Amino acid sequence: MGLQDSDIILVERSNTLYRETYGNRANIDSSDLLLVERGGTLYKCTYADFSSATGTDLILVEANSTTGGRVVGKMYQETQSEWAFPTANVDIHSANYAINPITTLYGQTGNNSNPYSVAEVRMEVSSSAAYAAGDLYIGIRNTAPTAYYGDLPIAAIQILESDGTTVRETSYHDCTWNFALGNTQAGYLDWATTTAAIQDEDEDPSDASYTSIGTNATARRFSDSETGGTGSSSVGAARGIPSSTYTGNPASTSILPVGSANVAQSSSSSDGYIFVECSTPSATNDITWLGLATTGNIYNGDRIRICYFGGANGTSSSTGLQTNNTLYLRFEEG
């Protein structure tokens, strides 16, 4: 089933038991003890040792939400291999970085209600300082061999501090955006889009020209699904994610949970998303960039989470979007 951020884990520290959520696992010390099952035998394992334990070792968690089909209060066993351990910061300032792999699903009906997925990257924005201000870019490359299957809706973006639970707030932006909120700062007003045909995935996105996000479904630009409609079959989400939950306000928003097909679509018909239309003249390998100008200070170790729709990406992997080299990230120090 996969670990959920709301899952509760029993942890022992200095002979005292306490409960910690998986989403706040950064609070678990390396010497804290976890109860682990291997081959039917229970043993205590330090958190430091758990990172190198056998992938099939089991840990018991208690569900604290219904996300991912959980039943609140029910106990589940999860394998060590499902645990996402801290990774090194990824250099996104020297070159375009491909977020691989993404989740894709094929052979679905058009504009369906499958869940969204959330990708995360722990960013290095500078090699010479602890933080940097500049411009941030997110690229969608049409990797579908049949070009009109190349749409990839984006519902929301968040930049979090290194703890993974606090929204990064800069002097220019509250770094949580839900595109269901439309042409507002909490929606897509802060972002701009390219409109030209760009084929080189290594091209510096800061060299391109940018304009405001459109309200018509036009090729090679990000558009608002609620105004323009998707215009394509077998690749569209019916709706975005709930604007009442992911509010675009750091004080009230829920944090996007990292995972595959784990964020349900909104029940409100007014909650849309942004996407790049690929039905009209577009081409395989076209890349379209979103640009966020003047970020304010972003720190090394900050996490960017991108909520994208991998729930209908063509009829098959031979015609639809590919799992690799489809979603890109770049930061330009200013």
Task: Give a summary of the structure in a few sentences.
The protein is mostly beta strands and 334 residues long. It contains 2 helices and 22 strands. The protein folds into 2 domains: 8-82, no CATH class; 87-334, no CATH class.
Task: Explain the overall architecture.
A hairpin with a 2-residue loop joins strand 1 and strand 2. This protein folds into 2 domains: 75 residues, no CATH class; 248 residues, no CATH class. The protein is globular. With 334 residues, the protein is mostly beta strands. The longest helix has 4 residues. Strands 1, 2, 3, 4, 5 and 6 form a 6-stranded antiparallel beta sheet that branches. Strands 7, 9, 12, 13, 17 and 21 form a 6-stranded mixed beta sheet that branches. A 6-stranded antiparallel beta sheet has the order 8-22-11-19-14-15, with no helix packed on it. The mean pLDDT is 90. The chain starts with 7 loop residues before the first strand and ends with a strand. The chain contains 2 helices and 22 strands.
